[in-house]
Structure formats: C-alpha cells, structure tokens
Amino acid sequence: MKKTVLVTGASRGIGRAIATVFARNNYNVMINYFKSEREALTLEQELKQQGCTVAVYQADVTQRTQVAAMIVESEKIFGSVDVLINNAGISQFKLFTEISDEDWELMLATHLKGMFNCCQEVLPQMIQRKKGKIINIASIWGMVGASCEVHYSTAKAGMIGFTKALAKELGPSGIQVNCIAPGIIDTDMNKGLDETEKSQLLEEIPLQRFGKPEEIAALAFYLASPEADFITGQVLSPNGGFVI
Ligand code: NAP
Question: How far apart are CA 217 and CA 20, in angstroms?
C-alpha cells in the first residue's frame, strides 16, 4: 500500500525537493505551504503531470488549529500520515542585542511550536498503528552555534533535543524520530549572502561548495525507508565537512 508523507514548508527550497523525491518514488505527498501559494500550486501541478499523487494545504505551522485541520485533511485524502517531515523554517541575521521580543517569539514558534504542533497531531494515529517516522530538519547552527543567529541557533538546538527525547519515548511504539542538520544549502534562505560572505563560507567547507536541496531530500528519503528502521534519535549532518 502507498505510504503518505506530510512535508511542512514544501513550497520552496529543501521542503520542495523533499516533496518531489517522495512523490516520484510512489508516496502520496501532502505539500504544506504558508505564504508561497503560487509556488506550492505549481509544484502540485508539476508532480500531478508526472503521475504523482499529491495534495496541497495552506497552514501556518505555528497555529495549532490550522495544523490539526491539515492532519485531518491528509488522513481524509490519503488514509494516514506515515511520515512527517518538520521542515518549515525561517532565518534572520541580527546582533543578539537587536533581537526583538517578536523576532525571538516568531523564531521559536516557527521551529519549535511548529514541530510540537505537527508531532502532537500526527502521533495518536502513528502510536495506534505502532509505526511511523518523524524527520526534523534542524541545522549545523543548532550543533555549533552561529554568531548573529542566536535565536535561530537556539531553535535548531531545541529541535535536536526534542528529537532525542521523543525518539526515546516513542521507540517502544515502533516510531523512529531523527534529525537532519544540514550545512549551507543553496536555497532562498541564503540568497541574502553577498559574494564576499559566500567565498568566506566556501573557504571553510572542505568540499568547497554549498549543498543542494536534493542532497537533503535523498537523506530524508533514506531515513523514511525500511532500510533505516534501526536508526532513531540520531542527528545526521550533510554539510560538506564544514562541521566534523
Ligand atoms: P526556504 O527556501 O526559505 O523555505 C522555507 C520554507 O518554510 C517555505 O516553504 C516556507 O513556506 C516555509 N515556512 C516558513 N514559515 C512557515 C510557517 N509558519 N508555516 C508553514 N511553512 C512555513 O528555506 P530552506 O533553505 O528550504 O529551509 C528549509 C529548512 O531547512 C528550514 O527549517 C531551515 O531552517 C533548514 N535549514 C536550511 C539551511 C540552508 O542553508 N538553506 C541549512 C540548515 C537548515 P512559504 O514560503 O509558503 O511561506
């Protein structure tokens, strides 16, 4: 039977690549987006034209009622959610002393409350079936910290702690929870970097390039597969050797 994956923040970047790889490999895919409706609908159309089974749902992951409605809709259309990928994210560069209360709250809400909401809404069904996979997209900055990204680094470190704790709690229920902590990936999130900043970063990456969204998608697809059934509570970091 076809499995279903729900990918948050799948309108652009890494989430879009994840939705695409799962759809092309015989999964039903629920494409979640927040603001980028045109991009999400284009992705839906492209994948449908390729014979994939996909649907689109607009929801702000920080809002519990919207997330709950999205999960109900996914289960109504596809029968279940077998794999949840918490990918939705935002970034912001600011000196710590200039981070406002609103900046801090939005950063934590998007990554932590969003992940909390989605996990709480999908888990009752997964626990009942004694099967399921959750993959959280954190960042190397959650492992080593980034200057001028204290709130982002805090949120991503929180995702790592959450993954480890939940993996321990859900192991006996047959559910794997893992984390991918990418290095610098070529998406809109890094489009604000100027050429000097890019070359400074490249100098620190042994493989001398940024990653591609498809490389993160391939790892997510592997973690969702039965071949990865013995992997849980882990943080896998495709980063070109930036952090070793
Ligand atoms: P991106 O291209 O900017 O895309 C971000 C995605 O998140 C968009 O689809 C956006 O949806 C969605 N999103 C943001 N807030 C949302 C909300 N409240 N509810 C639902 N969706 C929301 O970024 P990306 O580079 O693909 O990043 C994806 C994930 O990887 C993020 O968690 C990011 O922190 C992480 N990451 C990225 C890098 C990197 O170098 N790019 C490195 C490490 C980790 P809309 O556009 O529809 O609003």
Answer: 8
How many Å lie between the centroid of ligand 1 and the Cα of residue 7? 11
* SS3 state at 32: strand
Is the pTM higher than 0.70? The answer reads yes
When the candidates are 3.40.50.720, 3.40.630.30, 3.40.50.2000, 3.40.30.10, the CATH number that belongs to 4-236 is 3.40.50.720
Q: Which of 27, 33, 152, 222 is catalytic?
A: 152
Ligand 1 binding pocket (C-beta < 6 A) is 8-9, 11-15, 32-36, 60-62, 87-91, 110, 137, 139, 182, 184-185, 187-190
- % of the chain at pLDDT higher than 90: 100
Q: In this structure, what DSSP letter does residue 112 have?
A: I
Using CA atoms, how far apart are residues 70 and 65, in angstroms rounded to an integer? 9
In angstroms, what is the span from residue 180 Cα to ligand 1's centroid? 14
- The pLDDT tens digits of the residues spanning 83-140 come to 999 999 999 999 999 999 999 999 999 999 999 999 999 999 999 999 999 999 999 9
Work out which ligand 1 atom sits closest to the CA atom of 186.
Answer: 41
For the chain, what are the domain ranges?
Answer: 4-236
Active-site annotation holds for 152 = yes
